[in-house]
Structures are given as structure tokens and as C-alpha cells.
Amino acid sequence: MSDIEKTKCLIIGSGPAGYTAAIYAARADMSPMLYQGMQPGGQLTTTNEVENFPGYPEGITGPDMMVQLEAQAKRFDTDVRFGFITKVDFSGDVHKCWADDGKEIHADTVIISTGATAKYLGLESEQKYLKMGGGVSACAVCDGFFYRGQETVIVGAGDSACEEAHYLSKLCTKVTMIVRRDEFRASKIMAERVKNTENITIMYNVNTVEVLGDGQGVTGTLVKNNKTGEETTIPCTGFFVAIGHKPNTDIFKDFINLDETGYIKYEEPGTSLTNVEGVFVAGDAADKRYRQAVTAAGTGCMAALDAERYLAAKGH
Ligand code: NDP
What we know:
Layout: E1 4-12, H1 16-27, E2 33-35, E3 49-50, E4 60-61, H2 62-75, E5 79-81, E6 85-89, E7 95-99, E8 104-112, E9 116-118, H3 124-131, E10 136-137, H4 140-143, E11 151-155, H5 159-169, E12 174-178, H6 188-195, E13 200-203, E14 206-213, E15 218-225, E16 231-235, E17 238-241, E18 245-247, E19 279-281, H7 293-313
Parallel strand pairs: 1-2, 1-8, 2-5, 8-19, 10-17, 11-12, 11-17, 12-13
Antiparallel strand pairs: 3-4, 6-7, 7-8, 9-18, 14-15, 15-16
Helix pairs in contact: 1-2, 1-7, 5-6
Bound molecules: NADPH dihydro-nicotinamide-adenine-dinucleotide phosphate (NDP).
């Protein structure tokens, strides 16, 4: 029992949603406690240059932006903790959460900002160039600009892949879509749009064998037709992966309503409310549509304001 800690506001996750929620909650005197999670700083720490977050006219690297957001949250006395929440129990009036260090936390309000994880193919060459920031990305809107006037490849055939291929087609001279079956998973309208775009080439029944590079950056993609066995090298400087995301919501599934793909459902559209009173959601854990740092930050603000109002209504 000695290890139980109480807080008015527990924030789970440290991407732009979590830190923005912390800044707002701290400035509203809620003394928030924030657990950073498995990947402190979230998905932005795997992004090189962020040029689309308002307020940085020269751009900023993803890791630098997260350091600044953390510093801003700490400036207002957010209790930022290295570690992650392993279990929750939202069945009673008190929201109980357990951390990996064994602490039991009783929170009046909880803000879930655990984000989502982009899926990758898992090829060694893909991971190598991803880690060195050498031309592999899971976000065309974030990184497409760096491949202006160049040739790119994008893997996937869902709505995201179509949307991102179309986005890239406006910047790049040529976009090659790698589709593993003989058809798209995407909605008809999205698939038709890429099929009708002149500088998008679609290769069906192909799998990526290797991301090719010169040790500094990507130079091409080796693909293999899974019907004929024929191998083809596609020259490109950018290799985009759009094969889906996995929301980091597993620990909440017994208490919080999720959709069929694991994203948290908003109880009331246009708010941050979940089906559990006093538990709010921000960022990519509930967003499969926009997935941007700036939208995550916006919903982090909403969640903190909703949490503050909830506490005020309870007389705290
Ligand atoms: P999806 O799960 O819908 O699609 C994933 C795609 O990636 C599929 O075509 C799948 O192929 C392919 N894929 C998966 N694994 C591999 C692999 N290892 N190698 C090659 N290809 C692979 O994910 P999305 O991110 O596209 O969409 C998620 C959800 O978000 C959907 O419900 C979608 O409708 C929605 N969305 C809506 C948008 C909008 O309305 N504007 C925009 C973006 C997303 P296969 O088909 O063979 O399984």
C-alpha cells in the first residue's frame, strides 16, 4: 500500500499530444504527472526534419522539438517520469494505473496520449536507412518535401498509401506503388485517383526484397513479383512505407471503447471524452485520419481543458 501515489491528472505518453496536455494541465494548477512511455518523445523522435509545425520557420528536428516540448512541460512543474504504464483499472471512481517500476497511481483524471506505431516491413536495409534518416519514411506529409523533383517508391495499397502516393505525386517526378496483391485494399475512389494520376506507376503482385543504398542514402528498391519470381530494381531516393499503424491502446481495451482496428472511440465527437468519465484521449491513439504533430498537440490541449472542466464540476 505504501507505493500508492495520488494525482489530479495522469498523462500517459510523451508525444506532442501528451506534452501539450501537460503544459495546459500544469498551467491550470493540476500538477500533472506524465509517464513518457516506451518511446520518450513518441513517433517524432524517428523523424528527421519537421518543417510543417507552425512557429519554426527554419524547421526543427523531431528529437529537438520533443526536447523543447518536454522542457516547456517541466517549466510549469509537470512531474515527467521515465517509465511506462503497464496496467489500468478504470472500473471504479478512482482511476487506477500501475507503472513498470511497481508504483500504483490513483488519478482523478487520466489523459491517454499513447499514440500509434507505424508498421514497417522489417527488412534490415529498411531499418538501416530509417535509423540514419537516409530516405526511409512512414509519413509522406512529413517527409515528402525532401524528395521534390526526385523519384520515390511507396509500399501499401490501403487508403493511407493512396493518399500518400497522391501527395508525393505532386512533389516527385515519379512515384511507384508496390502492391503485394493484384488489387487495392483502399476505397474505390482513392484507388481510382492514384490509377488516374499520370506520374504514379502501380506494380501489382510484388514484394520488396531490399531497400538499396550507397551507405549514405537510398538509391533504389529491389522488388520481386510473387507470381513470376521476376526481380526488378526501381531507382528512387525516397522509400515510403504506408502499410498501416497500430494504435498503442492494448492496456485500455477492457475499459475503453475501441473501434475494430484498436483506435479509441470518442464518446462525443469534437471533444476528448472517452466512454469512461474522467478519462480523456488525445493524439494518434484516437486519430487514424490526420496523424500530424500539430493535430496531436491540438487534441492534447482539448484533453487538458476537458479534464480541468471535469474536475471543476466535481468541486476539485
Ligand atoms: P490498411 O490496413 O487499410 O491498409 C494497409 C495496406 O498495406 C494494405 O493494402 C495491405 O495489403 C498493405 N500491407 C500490409 N502489410 C504489408 C506488407 N508487409 N507488405 C506489403 N504491403 C502490406 O491501413 P491504412 O493505414 O491504409 O488505413 C487504416 C485505416 O484508416 C483504414 O480504415 C482506412 O480506411 C483509414 N484511412 C482513411 C483515410 C481517409 O478517409 N482519408 C486516409 C487514411 C486512412 P493487403 O491489402 O494485401 O492486406
